[in-house]
Amino acid sequence: MGSAAALGGAAASGLLPAWAQSNGAANLGGLRPLSGQAFDLTIGQSGVRIDGRQGPAITINGQLPAPLLRWREGDEVVLRVHNTLDEDTSIHWHGLILPFQMDGVPGVTFPGIRPGETFEYRFPVRQAGTYWYHSHSGLQEQLGHYGPIVIDPAGTDPVGYDREYVVVLSDYTFEGPYRVFDRLMKSSDTYNFQQRTVPDFFADASEQGLGRALRDRLMWGRMRMNPTDISDVTAATLDYLVNGHGPADNWTGLFNPGERVRLRFINASAMTIFNVRFPDLPMTVVQADGLNVQPVEVGEFQFGPAETYDVIVEPDADRAFTLMCESIDRSGFARATLAPRPGMTAPVPPLRPRPTLTMRDMGMDHGTMGGDAMDHDAMAAPMPAGGGMDHGSADHGAMDHGAMDHGTMNHDAMRRGATGMAPQRHDHPAGPGVVNPAEAPVSRLGEPGAGLEDAGHKVLVYTDLKSLEPNPDMRPPGREVEVHLTSNMERYMWSFDGVRFSEVVDPIVFHEGERVRLTMVNDTMMPHPIHLHGMFFDVVTSETGDRHKPRKHTITVKPGEKLSVDITADAVGDWAFHCHLLYHMHAGMFQVVSVLPGDRHESGAAHDAHASMPAMAGHARHGGDH
Amino acid sequence: MRVLFCPLAGVLALAAGTTAAAQTQADAYYPPEEMAEARAALRHATGGARRFYFRTDRLELRDQRDDEQVLLWDVDAWYGGQVNRLWLKSEAEFSLEEDAFEELEIQALYSRAISDYFDLQTGIRHDIEPDAGRTHAVLGIQGETPYWFEIDAALFLSDEGELTAGLETEYDFLLTQRLVLQPRAELSWSADEIPELGIGSGLGSLEAGLRLRYEIRRQFAPYVGVEWSRKFGETGDIAAAAGDRTDNTALVAGLRIWF
User: Which of A360, A489, B129, B188 has the highest CB neighbour count under 10 A?
Assistant: First the structure.
């Protein structure tokens, strides 16, 4: 690995911003990011070098990732964005609370920035924390058009640290995102090279018995679903990057043993959910999506595109530590190193076996087990990944029931539901874009994500997150809007409520000042990082009066999950609302949320502010009318 | 330098009592015609884009047991979005001995996704060979059945009034992530006897093949295989009476590509 590090040094070309360069050069304390209040950002066609291979890129000021912008809470910033491309472009300031006409989404909040033109963004900085910015035009983002933002708090930072690094995770394809997207549209399993094969079948049959293996294959075959559809884009075409560096380039951040090192993780990838861990170094999560949380120590976390976590690590040994960032499907990884001195490396652990989908991911609960949490956990355990993996066979009981008695199981699930309530309704168009709507979706906020159920160490779950500051708006929601995440993987169709954005007629309307509960039901078999521009989600991790619910700009909704977030509609304007898996958005999983000025409309919140939650549940379906 | 940001316009618009309309609120800050154009572009790009697809499901050389060598193609292409498409399909057999097409047909079909896994297709088929000039109206379905059988079934009504039907099905067994064994079957049926084509009424022929392809890339897969065909029923009787073979076997080698 020593030679890989040397290669990394050589590959740190001029394209990498200083803060993203390896070794000593990466020390934030010794380097100056772009800071101040006025910035010139030039977007242009460029190139990038990853693990020694050259490819095309769209960069900002010639850098990939784009320059780190360092602002101070309370300042007003001016950003003059110059477009030297021969196509339109844009910059969206992800997670920032700002006037909607500065939000940077072509066709929603502004017309876009034409070739050769300059657009001036100007807005007050009303928050602190780790954020990022990226193109909202076509698939430009995956070509390199993304960069980090760090906003220093106006007051004292509650997080103490001796040193900090921004860690931008991303994915890059030498094929080019437009070609990859085109191929997925034509054949959605183009990049899945972890499918179940005939030899896998025989391996399963010898392990579990022929009958069980066959029933399992028949069950998935009958649904025309593939249990290995974990990621639609994989390492077959993606290179996974840390601060623009491939695994061989090995981005390295330095530390002195005993220091508290703050790592600001940003998932700036287009299509990759990452599992992030140091194999031998616990992380204390102190911030999520830019907002401080009560410290929680974990061994690993999974996060989707656009999510950010700030963690503190305290490496006290005089040796290197590997940062391992597996893609969720375990087809590849990004890797970096924290080391006391340049050139030091630590072993890179092998990729763990890939997870497969379970009945829980299909939104089918298991009525016969009576809703006991332990039983659910057993059901969520991964099925054996082809040959080789040795899981306790008891875990597969749930699958087996599903296979043997599929129809009956559905009825059970529908009668009982996940929480003993009515079966899940689907008041949206079906048609060719909707496959296998979840019959009994459940909250999975307490689950770590695909493949991490048996990680052997503590993995962050959303219910671990507690806002450090009390939530600013404790009103109960006045009404509920339910949105279903829908897809047909075979046709590569992705949408909200069964309607691709190209066919959508009406936006989702909020009224200024109202408190809305947004409930999302994931009818697909993939996790979706859902992002609403302009307003934070108060994630409903518990009912009644919790003043420390986590607040996020992006939340990953797991397959077969139903979860709720509360939103204070205080930002008048039109806002993008979409899946942050770039191709899913591009394929149609996109909507506009229009927050209309309150003085022209009755505010639901004013009337229903004291409505109790049980009463509200009865009105839960009214939102499905778009 | 053109600066689009114009807060004054927004303030004026609101002061003038312009009702904020959902989804067009940016019109208060930017030229409404530019916004309309950008909205239309976003809408089209976000799920509405059309594309072109081409595939050689089979493009192969056949070495038949009757010592004939035949070049066969079974190609299709489409243009359109996720729901509505124009399909072109063509099948041909070209005899290397006779240096002539034994069969050459082309179909142009409007295709619409009617359910999660099936497309309804309707249009015309024109047979250039054999018996040049026959044209058919086509009504078919194409898609994926439960358990992953790919099927293409169609009814054909010719300009001579003959009703025929064809059913094709394929299945993929993944031996490895790239080595795929594909059984394939094709069955033909006719309502009427069509003597000039050697077709009797009822089920007329079955072709069954087994192809092993290696996906160097998903889009580029050479293959080898065997194909067996048999004429039976009245069609078989007609062939036998004419002294032709009623069954045939061929070794095939070909290329499956798509883009």
Answer: A360
Chain A, chain B: beta-carbon pairs less than 8 Å apart: 170
ipTM of the complex: 0.91
Smallest CA–CA distance, residue B223 to chain A, in Å, is 18
With 0-12 CB in 10 A as exposed, 13-18 as middle and 19+ as buried, what is A117?
A: middle
* Percentage with pLDDT > 90 across chain B: 85
Give the confidence band of A584 by pLDDT, cuts at 50, 70, 90: very high
Distance in angstroms (rounded) separating the CA atoms of residues B128 and A232: 42
- Nearest-by-Cβ selection for A109 from B26, B175, B176: B26
Q: Cβ contact (<8 Å) for A600 and B23?
A: no
Chain B CB within 8 Å of residue A223 CB: yes
pLDDT digits over B189-241, tens only? 999 999 888 999 999 999 999 999 999 999 999 999 999 999 999 999 999 99
CA proximity to A89, closest of A62, A69, A116, A123 = A116
Q: How many CB atoms lie within 10 A of CB A2?
A: 9
Listed residue (A81, A79, A92, A45) closest to A64, CA to CA:
A45
Q: Token digits for A297? A: 């120590």
C-alpha distance from residue A278 to each of A9, A12, A240 (Å): 22, 23, 17
Q: How far apart are the first and last CA of chain B?
A: 42
Q: Is B30 on the interface with A (CB under 8 A)?
A: yes
Question: What distance, in Å, lies between the first and last C-alpha atoms of chain A?
Answer: 55
Q: Give B 180-239 residues with CB within 8 A of chain A.
A: 181, 218-219
For residue B18, what are the contacts with CB-CB under 8 A and spacing of at least 6? Answer: B28
Q: Of the given ranges (A256-265, A535-544, B91-100), which has the lowest mean pLDDT? A: A535-544
Residue carrying the six token digits 């600013």: A472
Task: Compute and round to an integer the Cα radius of gyration of chain A.
Answer: 24
Give the pLDDT of residue A465.
Answer: 97
From A192, which residue of chain B is nearest by alpha-carbon distance? Answer: B177
Q: Are A564 and A522 in contact (CB under 8 A)?
A: no
Residue A122 near chain B (CB below 8 Å):
yes
pTM of this prediction exceeds 0.80: yes
Say if residue A23's pLDDT is above 80.
Answer: no
